[in-house]
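Record 1 of the preview.
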Amino acid sequence: PGNRSMVRRLPIAVNEGASEEKCGVDRLECAWTGDLWTAEARAFILGHAAAAVARGDMPQPWLLYIAHTAPHSGGVGTQEEGMPPVPRVGSGPYGSRHDMGPEVSYAAAITELDRQLGLVLEALETASEAEHTVVFFASDNGASSEGGHDYLTFNSSGPLSGRKRSLHEGGHRTPLIVRWPGQIARGTTSAQQFAFYDFMATALELAGGDPSRDLPPDQKDGDSLLPTLLGRPQAQKAFVYHEACRPWEKKHGWGQALRVGNWSGVCLGSLQETEGPACTQATFLLYNLDNDLAQAQNVAAQHPDIVQSMLAQMRTVRTPGATCRRPGAR
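->
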């Protein structure tokens, strides 16, 4: 289902026929992908440093990408690899919280992810690589509300409206945490906007390249965040664009979201029969995040010029395609 058909599945032999009886209540007799990925990451970091010592020189630049699936949307308590079960639930800090129901597994998943990240950072310290390594930590969407978990339980979206699969801020506005000892002061915060498509330009400039010169023509849509990371002035992104088929707000339609400065525009409509925009000026939702972070007040009627400008940008910024088109539509 979904995009799994595009992914090559690599079975874990010890998990064949996984069940609570075989794996144990805390699943310690089976292998969890989170443990395996973290172990591989630590081995890579420590091995890279050891190789440099053996050569008698400085470690060469490297890039390590770790994509943990937990907590994702797995049905809590299942044994399926497609719905990642979380180990060490009973022995964790929430094991006795029977009042939390299925939320115990979700809370355990968050705690486990934090522990796994700590093990990777520990490896950097052990390898004496921490001072030379920039660590980015981010999520690919807002708070999940699937698999028996309710995102409202832990107030996961905070003051933002919406959650995962939403075109409002709670669906895609998440913190980016960056650690760079000696360059970024502990506790520093920034309002600079950053999207995943900015990472390529940022990583390239960190490695000494020039994004405007060295990136292929079709990969120049991102902005390097390096000036902000170094505490230098940087212009805010011109815009941030999102698009979704069957979003949380309109599950039988599609929609677009555009952030320009602190203006947020949300455009929802029926399944796409043209190339957009998804809505009209009359149904456009406009919010001023300066004084309405929760996106509770639609001010489109008071700012028709901003709505018109955003609609025009939504029409031109997207790549034409049939992703959301109703079957049979031309």
